[in-house]
Amino acid sequence: MCSSPAPFLMSTMFPILETSLVACSVLMSLPGGANCCREDLREPWVPRNRMPQGWRLRGSRGHGERLILIFSSRYSRLRQWNTLYLCGTDEYGTATETKAMEEGLTPQEICDKYHVIHADIYRWFNISFDIFGRTTTSQQTEITQDIFQRLWNRGFVLQDTVEQLRCERCARFLADRFVEGVCPFCGYEEARGDQCDKCGKLINAVELKKPQCKVCRSCPVVRSSRHLFLDLPKLEDRLEEWLGKTVPGSDWTPNARFIIRSWLRDGLKPRCITRDLKWGTPVPLEGFEDKVFYVWFDATFGYISITANYTDQWEKWWKNPEQVNLYQFMAKDNVPFHGLVFPCSALGAEDNYTLVSHLIATGTLEDWTRNIPRE
Ligand SMILES: [Zn+2]
Ligand SMILES: [Zn+2]
């Protein structure tokens, strides 16, 4: 009478420059010692010589998702369910470009270096992914460009002009974290391009007074630049319909449901999917040759391209929503990208993509300890 369950697809991914597993080990130990602080746990779980130089324990974000993922994948393998367990490093974006500059390497060299370090740590922990992949592959470019092209052809991509700060000396547009200046609200002198650390208000970088390029300290100029936007409002009905079919009765965690609900309640807005950078997936559109896709547009396609690097049968996993159960595990700040932006892109591409069936989001350590019953 017992029917065999649908195949399981499990995935998580994290930025190349972060040390997530170290934080994961923190949660591993908490049930036995709720009073331990992070520093107490560092030594027993991760010998110092295994910690990449200069990496830090991440405090606020939980990263318990790695742990849940390990248990879930081992459980489903023990049950002999057909399971694909994948993980990888997400390697594009400004953080990589900057780190490369600091270390005097090219972005590709810095990714090669850190990918090996990540993979080595997972081996040391005896975590047996089917594949531990990365996003800097030709499959990633091919799949991302294909999804984009389908969205473009179906009218789900808009063009608009954005005002941005550009450093003429560095010859590049400055991402928010590479500009500093005086807060237009409280006058704090070291406000960042996206937020003021003193008054906490969100800032649009072009509003900063006396802006400075953080790399060369010269004063950037305001330039307008043409960008592409994913038309989320146009995809909202499809998203709602899919959520209505998927979420009730699933293992979506309450915080994931709440985060997606609050985005929808506030109304979806078009989301910029391109950046004036060199390090990223090229945009296959005339007039956009000097831009790349925003890392959060294509990072989640990394799961697909990593699978494509593992097997040429990848479409049996990723274009098979009727038969595949997709579990995704993440910290709660990644919920909008996995539960909203990726599904909208995939639904708009109209290519029968497998979408997340169960979205498991972990909170911060603080959320977690708040829920520990106290005697
Ligand atoms: Zn301020
Ligand atoms: Zn500069």
TrEMBL record:
What's an example GO BP annotation here? methionyl-tRNA aminoacylation
Quote the catalytic activity from the record. Answer: tRNA(Met) + L-methionine + ATP = L-methionyl-tRNA(Met) + AMP + diphosphate
- Example GO molecular function: ATP binding
Annotated keywords: Aminoacyl-tRNA synthetase, ATP-binding, Ligase, Nucleotide-binding, Protein biosynthesis, Signal
Superkingdom classification of source: Eukaryota
InterPro entries in UniProt: Met-tRNA_ligase_1, Met-tRNA_synth, Methionyl/Leucyl_tRNA_Synth, MetRS_core, MetRS_Zn, Rossmann-like_a/b/a_fold
Tell me a GO cellular component. Answer: cytosol
Show which residues constitute the signal peptide.
1-36
Domain Methionyl/Leucyl tRNA synthetase: start-end pairs: 73-365
Family the entry assigns: Belongs to the class-I aminoacyl-tRNA synthetase family.
Q: State the name under which the record lists this protein.
A: Methionyl/Leucyl tRNA synthetase domain-containing protein
Species in which this protein is naturally found? Myotis myotis
